[in-house]
Amino acid sequence: MNQPLVTIIVPCYNYGHFLKDTLNNVRQQEYQHWECLIVDDGSTDNTREVASAFVDADPRFRYLYQVNRGLSAARNHGIAQSNGVYIQFLDSDDFIHRSKIRQQVKLLEENKTFDLTYGLSLFFFNDQPDIFYQSRKKNNKRTSPLIQGSGKGRMIIGRLLINNIMEVSCALLRKELIIAAGVFDETMKSYEDWQFWIACAQLGAYFDFNPLPGTETYIRCGHTSMMSNKKNLVVHGIRVRKFLHQHLSIPQKAYNYFRLSKLYVRLWLKIF
Fold this sequence. Notes:
Elements (H helix, E strand, L loop, with lengths): L5 E7 L3 H12 L6 E8 L5 H11 L3 E6 L4 H11 L4 E4 L5 E2 L3 H11 L5 E3 L2 E5 L2 E6 L15 E2 L4 H8 L8 E4 H7 L10 H11 L3 E4 L7 E5 L8 H16 L4 H20 L3
């Protein structure tokens, strides 16, 4: 069987203390025809040393350094240097199930109309690494809508109107979709993935939601991250909703105005 190359892009900024576990997770994948690009976004900790140990041991790992420009720029740098047919994003403090890539490559190879396929995300905390939750609030109430279909209709945009639909590492994507969608907006410091999914939907991309056992993504919580800056989330939530607005029907625009107004009130009252 001809196995298509998968590029795993791991951006890292001062997460050297998590990076070793994440790269070991990559090495343990059942699907072995991959390259892993470790994009160091100007770290001042031991990120380079951790990455170098993997590069020296396995030529499938590559270390890329850039002056600090942010998460979106790091992902875009990885995309520009990638050789894969498919792209798997993986933040440097998270994990994916060891069979995720294998199963999702099979789905995309067998279904040429799918532009991306994604499964479920589970959340874990540093103080309880073996306990998994369906949300960041340590409960089993899932907040992200689970959708399948083409962005050519209103359904995908309508669901993206509610909130983001997945963690960025949940998906395996065709590289050609990423190039067509225009990669990530480097001015976005939060919700850049939400805006990216909107851009994909606008192109008419087909989103395949398939929660097969063994395709889960595991998101680390309980430490300082981009998601910890509440003001930043409000500011960039406003930006995403403004970006989304141009693609909505009149009833959807009314709902979006309502959500925008709530964000502006939070910003004005400094409710973070």
